[in-house]
Amino acid sequence: MKGRSRWMMALIIGALVLAACGDGDGDGDGGDGGEAVECESVDEVRLQLQWVAQAQFAGYYVANDLGFYDEQCLDVTILEGAVEIVPQTVLATGGAEFGLAWVPKALVSRNEGADIVNIAQVFERSGTLMVSFADQGINSVADFAGRTVGNWGFGNEYELTAAIEQEGIAADVELVAQSFDMLALLNGDIDVAEAMIYNEYAQVLEAVNPDTGELYQPDDLSVIDFNDVGTAMLQDAVWVNADWIADDANVDIAERFLTASFQGWIHCLDNFDECVQVVLDNGSTLGESHQQWQLNEILGLVFPATNGIGVMNESLWDQTVEVATSQIPELDGVEISDDAYRTDIAEAAIANLDGEDTDGDGYERRDIELREGGE
Amino acid sequence: MTDGVARKTGRWALLSPRTRKNLSVAGVVLTLILAWELYKLIWSSLGWIRPVRPDDVVMPHVWDMVIELFRPVRRGGNLLILDLLVRSLWTLREAVAGFVVGGLIGFGLGVLFVRSRLAERAFMPYVVASQTVPILAIAPMVVVWGGAIGLPQWMAVAVIAAYLTFFPVAINTLRGLRSPDPNSLELMRSYAADPSAVLWKLQVPSALPYIFTALKVSATAAIVGALIGELPAGFQNGLGRALLTFSQQFAVQSKKLYATVIICAAVGIFFVGMVTLAERKFVPHRETLEPEGEMLARASAGG
User: Fold this and answer.
1) B267 — pLDDT class (breaks 50, 70, 90)
2) ipTM for the predicted complex
3) What is the distance between the alpha carbons of residues B61 and B260, in angstroms, rounded to a whole number?
4) C-alpha span between A64 and A69 (Å, rounded)
5) Residue ranges of chain A that CATH labels 3.40.190.10
6) In CATH, what class is A129-229?
7) Less Cβ around it within 10 Å: N or C end of chain A?
8) Which of A69, A77, A78 is nearest to A32 (CA)?
């Protein structure tokens, strides 16, 4: 009894010492790989993500882990997003120099007083889908009439509400709150579910169809893509604090940051497996095939890039503003000023990447084989 | 019949108290597992889906959860249990740091309050009020402030653990310090003992059983605080992150989520167990306030 308790004490002390010695708080310092670059000084900057490490942010992790930021004399700390962390707020309060945010959400934050500017529209396409089972015969937004349609709320629903309004069926659609897992669709509680093409849609394809004992196949599902409906809104973009970017020295930092970040994304076009591995190295709980799927689809949202990666496509900006001001109550009647985005820094970054495939014209999605549970 | 019962009771009585306790703990665990599996069996054979769907996603078999622990976290990755044990160390570090800081603050407040009625009257309402503010509301603020003054992420998480820890310790320390017999106090005074001698020679020793009871409650609160604090902190190495990513993938990864919950509970039980061992060392057994089995049960429910 005495010996036993002493043994236990030794165990806990050992465990605590181990825990206390453990280092590596996860803030990447990159450093391995890449060419040796002589830097007169290294600028430390932080990038705030919207969510935890996953392939959605592959370009930044690749730039960090493969030393592209080092080559630009930057020391970048990637701050993972989490529950209740809003990158726009973090930017406004000076908690990070760069932040990722969807355009409509950032417009709301701007309207609420967060003075932030879009310096690179990295995703040119929206990743939002409406997914239903094929046997339901829901093949267009018009078919939503009389159906139960799930959505996430929290500002993720406006592409849907705009599409329903455009179709003139707002009164006939039952909109219900949906959680971020896809159980409600799988269990038949809702007829149509909102899903990101790079995440929740894949989760359905990672679930076992009880009728066949195999995973659900794309043929089992009917998918409506908001890019085709015409109510798509721009999503992941790099934002900075307007005061911070007013300083020319910071414009230079931003240009170097975008150069290396774009280089990271472009690197993934030809080094797909390496990029997936970088993502997996940054999150031990992530599934391999799920991240392969995600990177494949994310690259499809970035490339081909009409004006080169990160440079705003003006007509899509106008479409986003139009949908946002008509659908988002906080933006009702608000004039969105043109200084909400600028393209000069992204254009300069692209000019630095002479010889690289900055518009990814030939990008085609690979065939990804999902495994059960995304493993 | 009566004979059989008598014989069984007899055998039960023959077992050592320790064995009896272990058997009853095992009995509770077995009953819970049985209830889970029976619900699953009955509901799925009758086709009922309320209140909870009995399918393998929402209610996986208990053995599948355990098997999941010994499968790779992903293809070619470490076993899930190894990944979770490493994460446990990080979460324990935050919890222990918060527990120590919160415990010291709680003890200090208890001493302050027993010394000064004025301080007690002035601060006690705020101490109580602090616990009515939901930790979920406070956690993001602590993380933002911690970041602003340059605290490492894990320390911001520890602050949240400390916030949950200090209250039970403060209240029970105060009660414990007031517990000595008035006659003993008078005796000390008659020896002209100064206040610090009264505190350390009389009040603290008689407060120890109270303090340890509070520490056992706080141990689980510290673990809960660490788990909750990791979420807004964006802290990637702890159990909280595993809970977050697996719950996001619940529709396809539910076994991993349940497996993680099992490990979280185990960490809480482990921590309380350590405090109980310390209590045995410092407090004579007959003076402990509550049977520890009861405390353990409460602790694991909380963790």
Assistant:
1) very high
2) 0.75
3) 15
4) 6
5) 43-125+233-374, 129-229
6) alpha beta
7) N
8) A69
- The chain B residue lying nearest A23, using CA atoms, is B90
Pairing relation of β-strands A43-48 and A221-225?
unpaired
DSSP secondary structure letters along A48-67: E-SSSSSGGGHHHHHHHHTT
A74: its two tokens:
């930057």
Q: Does B175 touch chain A (CB under 8 A)?
A: no
- Across the range B222-238, mean pLDDT stands at 88
Closest Cβ–Cβ partner in B92, B152, B242 for A19: B92
pLDDT band at A25 (very low <50, low <70, confident <90, very high): very low
pLDDT of residue A85: 82
Per DSSP (E only), the strands in chain A are 43-48, 74-79, 98-101, 116-120, 128-133, 148-151, 174-177, 192-196, 221-225, 237-241
Helices (H) and strands (E) in chain A, counts: 15, 10
Q: Which two tokens stand for residue B71?
A: 């499968």
Sheet holding A74-79, edge to edge: A74-79, A43-48, A98-101, A237-241, A116-120
Nearest to A229 by CA among A278, A167, A183, A181: A167
HSE-CB for B102 with a 13 A CA cutoff: 34
Describe the strand order of the beta sheet including A221-225 as a list of residue ranges: A174-177, A148-151, A192-196, A128-133, A221-225
Q: For the whole model, what pTM was predicted?
A: 0.82
A-chain residues near B83 (CB < 8 A) = 284-285
d(CA B194, CA B210): 24
